[in-house]
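Re: the 336-residue chain
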Amino acid sequence: MEKNTNTPPFPSPLPRRIVFVVYDGYQPLDLTGPMQVFALANRDSPAPPYVLTTVAARPGRVRASAGPDIFVEEGLEAISAADTILIPGGPGVDAACGDPTLTNAIANARNKVRRICSVCTGAFLLAAAGVLDGRRATTHWGRCDALQAAYPNITVETTPIFVNDGNVWTSAGVTAGIDLALALVESDVGYPVAAAIARKLVVYLRRPGGQAQFSETLLMQESAGDTAFSSLMTKVAASLHKRWGVEELAAEMGQTPQTFQRRFRLAMGCSPYAAVQEVRISRARLMLETTTSGLMLIADRCGFTSEEQMRRLFQRKFGLPPKAFRSHFGRQQDDA
């Protein structure tokens, strides 16, 4: 029998159905950010790996919290065919949590789908449906305390960008939904596809879920308020190659070292040395996560006196030396 050369040797895998659940008052970027990631995976693959579906408890016009409304054709019955459910956050989530039609549909689907995910305050809808009971989860940093207070049987983690517990994924605010979607795509179809998507979206690839929702430098600037110390820390971050001892910092402020140290500690809650080292560690961590630069080069550019000093500080702060930290959180080799 003659072989049919037009037939591929193996059939393409069936596409996974990603179902986005929306409600009045959802946050548009929580929806369109992850949706764009999956859409780019489809566009760049010979056999599109996803089918994207948007559903609502009541099909028809759904109001967004900002921007144009959308028209949704499918109802919650489409959830039964989902591989992955993704729920955006938004100011309308509290009202959505009180809709038993919606929460029951999510509760019934949680053990039938491969993954169920939320972006930002979408975690409240998962919690209302009982999906997060006994699990670790996160949400926007500004609502973490409220989530913990309302649902004490959830272990709310306040700092990660996203958290994966079993088949449940929750993410922090807004752009963290893109990080979550990239992680899902990488899990489904591999690093090269996720890398290509990240480049197109001009985002850091694989910002790890364990990364903090905001940087130590930003936190220090906020704690300083509108004082000159905020500008000083910005200057330090922009020129980490400098020594930045107490004398140099005090000179920038036009103060004696004694006066500077006293005022700095009152404003920042830590010593000048500790603050500068925090900025150095934060920059080194970013370089370890997003570049393939050597450890000696990173130590030099971040202003550490030696690679060994950087290693000791990383071990103390993260419980890992820089090499192990990069192995766990850093980017893999790019396919470019």
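The chain is about 45% helix and 10% strand.
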